[in-house]
Amino acid sequence: MTTAPRATAPVSTDVAEIERALTRIVYLTSRVRQHDRMMARAGVPLDRAAVALLRQIADGEAVRPGELATRLAVEASHVTRQVQQLQKAGYLTRVPDPDDRRAQLIQLTPFGREAVERIREVSCRGMQGALAGWSPEELQQLATLFHRMVDDFLSYSGEDEAREGE
């Protein structure tokens, strides 16, 4: 069931412009053609969902499939299918969970880690080219503000979920 937005103060022009810019960035970076070019340059034949999953695992330690589904905001069955395919292709492996012998954790294989590194290298080179006219100070400021924004989004999302549970 979808609920109507709460009546609050009007959205500031700056926030609206940030939302607009983020929407454009997401669109530009998630286009199929863009993804296919990046995968060709990296030499990795994976779809966007598989890349998102591998990158999420690479950003942390071995993880349970349910936790991975939560982080990616997808159904557990989606993660299970992806993990099976990526395991079969040699990108992932399952290991026993040291805290619960009945559970398994998913982690990258060396082949999977190498693939993620190549994808990140190609992605960063493209971004570096696009931002070549920015000063080092501007790049540092942008990186700091992006990390702050992500942290605030995650914090707000957690508060929002807590409010829904009330």
From TrEMBL:
InterPro entries: HTH_MarR-typ, MarR/SlyA-like, WH-like_DNA-bd_sf, WH_DNA-bd_sf
One Pfam family of this chain: MarR
SUPFAM superfamilies per UniProt: Winged helix' DNA-binding domain (SSF46785)
PROSITE patterns linked: HTH_MARR_2
One annotated GO biological process: response to stress
Molecular functions per Gene Ontology: DNA-binding transcription factor activity
Highest taxon, organism lineage: Bacteria
Domain spans labelled HTH marR-type: 15-151
Protein's name according to its UniProt entry: MarR family transcriptional regulator
Organism field: Streptomyces himalayensis subsp. aureolus
